[in-house]
Every structure is written in C-alpha cells, then in structure tokens.
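Work Package 3 (structural annotation) set out to generate three-dimensional models for the target panel prioritized at the project kickoff. During this period the team completed the workflow that converts sequence records into discrete structure tokens, so that structures can be stored uniformly alongside our sequence database. As a representative example, we reproduce one entry of 107 residues exactly as it appears in the project archive.
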Amino acid sequence: MSSEEGIRISNELIGSMLDLIAAHDERASGDTIVSVQYLTAVAGYLIGSYPGADSERDELLEHLGALMKHVADDRMQAARKQQGAQVQRRGVEIPTDDPAMGIWRPG
C-alpha cells in the first residue's frame, strides 16, 4: 500500500497494540494516558530516525499532529452522534393540543 492510499485502523489493530503495551507495562491496562504516552514516544523514536532534513522532519511532525487531531475529532463526533441517537430512542413524545406543550415519557 502506498502512502497515497491512506491507512486503515480497526478496533482489532488498536486492541492488539494496547494489549502489547499493557504486557510491557501493566499501568497501561488501567490508564489510557499511559498507553497514549507509549504510542507517542514510539512515534517520536521512529521519526527521530527520519533521513530527511530537520525542516522536513518538523513538517512531518506537524502533519502527524494534525492527523491525530483529525482522527480524535472524528472519533468524538461519532461517539456524540451515537449517544444522541441512543437518547432519542429511549423516550416517547406524546403530542398534545397545545403546540407549546408536550408529554415525554421514558420508553
């Protein structure tokens, strides 16, 4: 796969990576931030071996930071949308004759 095709992440891939980190450091199994620190440190370690100029490496770091923010924003937005759909499904709205009034009962 070329870099132009993009990457594919899955719950299975993420789970495997987190399991590997937790096997290395048990603190990571109960603390997401520890896992993220490991993932970030590994990325930094790999980028430290980047063969290009310092300016290219810095540009790559900026690009990767933007990618991480984009993925995090997408993930949070999807989670909020899913939570909103679940909340809407829980109740039943009962219309009344008064357009400013309604009755809502848990479903």
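The beta strands are 91-95, 102-106.
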